[in-house]
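SAMPLE LOG
Freezer: B-3
Tube label: C17
Construct: single chain, 299 aa
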Amino acid sequence: MKRLTIANPFMQLMLLIGAWAVGMLLVGYAGAALAPVFGISPSQVQDGLFPHNPSLARCLMAVQSIGVFMLPPILAAALIYRKRACIFLGVVRKPLSANVLLTSLALVVAIPFISLAANVNALLPLPEWATSIDHDATELTVKLIFTPDAATLLLNLLIIALIPAISEELLFRGYLQRVLHGWTRNPHVAIFISAVVFSALHIQFEGFIPRFLLGALFGYLFYWSGSLWLPVAAHFTNNAVTIFAYFYAARHGVNLDSAEVGETSGSLLALASVFVVANLLAQIQRREKLRRKRHLLPA
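STRUCTURE (predicted):
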């Protein structure tokens, strides 16, 4: 197969920004159009005043994930690479089944360390407006995922776990990281810049550090494998763990909030989780290297 020629990085970023702006406009129009269907005024949607309408909230989450994160990289890549856009975004190459399992396991094992990072993040002073945004976002998410209903659980896994995992990985790893890698010629710089943007665009400052660490992990999974589906699996697992935790808590009458998922009384378990995760990631990287050698793929 002919190797993909990477286009001018600056042009790719400008196209992405333009597509992202169009996506934001479409999401705004979609929100205004959907609001009356759920008995909410468009102004309330713009102000985010719909926490007591979970159906509308889930619908808007799906629309936002698709319009803001999924469509822009697909559109920009299609304009530049046309029929080879899927190759550029990394969606053609299938991941190794064993590595998908190892990746999911690594994300579960990493919970104590991610929780420790969240605790460190909580020590940083933040302005009142930032904590208010975080509180509102957390409150809405908890209301959506704290449910004992199995059907709602499946809906949450689709809208809050799977769709965001695919959409965000398309934007931040499939497109942005690839462009930055071509621009800087340094995969590590591309991975960390993409992770910073990934965390910042969530606009949840109390979780910036753990989300940045997760973004870097997703970035290395994409760099090692060349397949977008490996970081998608990791992203989905991270989201699904919290959803399942709240489902379990709702079914058993446990009072749980997201900051408590995976917390430990000390740092020993967090350090142990880092050691185990590092070994799992080393196995993943080793398997990918062997795969490249067997198929004579470029490093």
